[in-house]
Design a protein that fits this description.
By secondary structure, the protein is of the alpha/beta class. Helix content is about 30%, strand content about 20%.
C-alpha cells in the first residue's frame, strides 16, 4: 500500500502540505505549500498556494506562473488579496533551477533539450516527449489541487508574467488539449510568432505543430496583457536582444502589440474561424508583476477600470 505523509505546520497562519503520492489530501484555506509529483522529475514540484476563505467547489482555480526568478512564493503572496476578494484558489509553482535549468529553457517551457545553443538558439533540439514539457506539469498541478480541495472545476485560468507570460502564450500554441479556460500572458519578453516563415523558437518553422493545431490555438481564450509603461529597451538588462526578437520590437510593449498584429494577420490569411485572441493594456503600469496581477484579477473576475484595448495597427 502506498503511504501518504501529511505534515501540517501552522506558523504565522501558513500551512505546509507534503504529499506522496499526489492525490487527495485536504487543502485548507489560507496560504501554504503543496508538493506535486510529476513524471520524469527527480522529486516533487513545489507549489505555493492561497485558498480564499470563501473558496468552494464551484469557485475558480487559477495557476500563476512567476517570471525568471521562479519565485512562486512572492507571486502567490501578491494574489492573496485577490484570492480573498474573488474566492479563488491560487496555485503558483516554483520550477527550480536545479531541475529546470537556464532562463531560456524556462521561457520555452522545457520544450528544448539541454544541449541546445541557448545563446544564439541557432540549433534547437526539441524534447520529444511532451510530458517532459512544463505544460503537462501544470496540468498535473491542477489535478492535484482539484483532488485536494474537492473542487468541481474542470478548467482553470492561467496567468503568467514576464518569463511566465512566455510560457502562457506557448502553452496556448503548443498544448491544445490542456484545460485552460482563460489565459493571460503578461509582459512577455519575446514571442513565438504564429508564422511558418520564421524558425522555431521565434516562429513555427520546425515547431511541433500542424495547421489544424494552429487553428485550434487561435480559438483559445488568450489575452496578451501588457503594461502601458513596460516600454524600456533594457539593452543591458534581462530583455533578450537578437535580430529575431528586435524584429518584434525594442521593448515588451511593442513586442506584445506586434505579436497580436501578426497573429491576427495570420488568422485572416488562413481564413481561421473563431480567432479569439485579444490584447489588453493596463494603464499606468510597467514591468510590475504585483500590479499586473491585481489588474489581471480584476479583468478576469471583477470590473476593470484601468484596462484598455491595445493599438495593434
Amino acid at each position: 500500500m502506498l503511504v501518504q505523509t501529511l505534515v501540517a505546520l501552522i506558523c504565522f497562519g501558513v500551512s505546509t502540505i507534503t504529499a506522496f503520492p499526489s492525490h487527495a489530501l485536504a487543502l485548507p484555506p489560507g496560504s501554504g505549500v503543496m508538493e506535486v509529483e510529476t513524471p520524469g522529475v527527480d522529486g516533487p514540484i513545489v507549489v505555493h498556494y492561497h485558498r480564499g476563505s470563501g473558496h468552494s467547489a464551484d469557485d475558480p482555480i487559477i495557476v500563476v506562473l512567476p517570471g525568471g526568478g521562479r519565485n512562486g512564493d512572492s507571486y502567490r503572496d501578491s494574489w492573496i488579496d485577490s484570492a480573498e476578494q474573488y474566492d479563488l484558489l491560487v496555485l503558483a509553482p516554483s520550477f527550480d533551477e536545479r531541475r529546470f535549468p537556464g532562463p531560456i529553457n524556462y521561457n520555452l517551457a522545457g520544450m528544448i533539450a539541454d544541449d541546445a545553443n541557448l545563446r544564439t538558439l541557432e540549433t534547437v533540439t526539441l524534447r520529444e516527449a511532451p510530458e517532459e514539457w512544463l505544460f503537462a506539469r501544470i496540468e498535473a498541478i491542477f489535478d492535484a489541487a482539484v483532488a485536494r480541495s474537492d473542487s468541481a472545476q474542470t478548467q482553470y485560468d492561467l496567468f503568467g508574467h514576464s518569463a511566465g507570460g512566455q510560457i502562457v502564450h506557448r502553452m496556448t500554441l503548443f498544448a491544445p488539449d490542456t484545460r485552460i479556460r482563460r489565459a493571460l500572458a503578461a509582459n512577455s519578453g519575446w514571442y513565438t510568432i504564429p508564422s511558418s516563415q520564421t524558425a522555431f523558437p521565434y516562429g513555427l518553422d520546425g515547431a511541433p505543430m500542424d495547421e489544424q493545431q494552429l487553428e485550434t490555438a487561435f480559438e483559445r481564450d488568450l489575452v496578451v496583457f501588457l503594461g502601458e509603461l513596460d516600454n524600456a529597451s533594457e539593452t543591458r538588462g534581462h530583455l533578450r536582444h537578437t535580430p529575431e526578437t528586435d524584429s518584434q520590437g525594442l521593448h515588451r510593449l511593442a513586442r506584445g502589440q506586434s505579436f497580436m498584429r501578426l497573429a491576427a494577420e495570420q488568422a485572416t490569411s488562413k481564413d481561421a474561424e473563431g480567432f479569439a485572441w485579444e490584447c489588453a493594456i493596463v494603464i499606468g503600469v510597467g514591468h510590475d508583476y504585483r500590479r499586473m496581477g491585481q489588474a489581471a484579477a480584476e479583468y478576469l473576475y471583477g470590473a476593470s477600470e484601468n484596462v484598455g484595448i491595445c493599438d495593434t495597427q
